[in-house]
Amino acid sequence: MQTFLVTGAAGFIGFHLSRLLLDRGYQVVGLDNLNDYYSVSLKQDRLKQLLTQTAFRFVQADIADRGAMQELFANTHFDRVVHLAAQAGVRYSLSHPHAYTEANITGFLNILEGCRHAKVAHLTYASSSSVYGANTTMPFSVHHNVDHPVSLYAASKKANELMAHTYSHLYDLPTTGLRFFTVYGPWGRPDMALFLFTKAILEGRPIDVFNKGKMRRDFTFIDDIVEGVFRTALQVATPNLKWSGGHPDPGSSKAPYRIYNIGNHQPVELDYFIQVIEDAVGINAQKNLLPMQPGDVPATYADIDALEQAVGFRPATSIEDGIKRFVQWYRGYYGH
What we know:
single chain; 336 residues; 7-stranded parallel beta sheet; 41% helix
């Protein structure tokens, strides 16, 4: 039975991925530091579900703790590593920049070193659609240059891709980076728009709508995300034999290194997103129309051709179905 290391296992995506892996017969070691960036009780409730499975083992540790990471990789053999632990959030990076260098840079280096010395067969890690930054050519493609981030969070994710390429090149470590596009669904993060809007509407409070609702996001349902992560983790990154330094493709390399987008490929305007929440909740929202915030981008839109060609998968959950399922979970969990 293969063993996966899933970092950030008490997080939104890590929890769902761990559950999928357990359902499909894999052993999972879940790592998380249970920090208080958002509700620790929500993370603990996710963990409680995973801990009912005998094939799941939880390790509480911080990826930025070099000694703890060395010990973890020395004591357990991992067939695959899926690295999802990170300091998330674009807006939080404006006020807490050091959290991003500690978790997303130092922490990622510790994971790379662990995989390198343990000779892990494949490292799959979370990047972000935010790396596209100031790019305006749509849909965003992994073959586009991404050298103009507009937040420190985005810069840290771009740095992860560069660091991974270095390890793929120097140490022949297969790495695949996945650029997630606005993930949502049951057990989601309380700092994300869907959670914030649903909570406020149900409590009769107004919602803050940035860029006056004219932002567009490629909202991607959590089940689609983890299916794509799972398939990608099994598909070990290989060199692109056609890669040329004269016309370098940013999404691949002569090294065993790949980058893919995972998005719904159907961007939705924020106004419509709110309308679907209103329909699911049965209450009209009170809106505070505000300008765009620093670090935000007006639109995201994923080109997922490379992912589909590599692993034969493309997300398909509609925004209407996905939001309905989130609202059902939210009402059940919080008793609304």
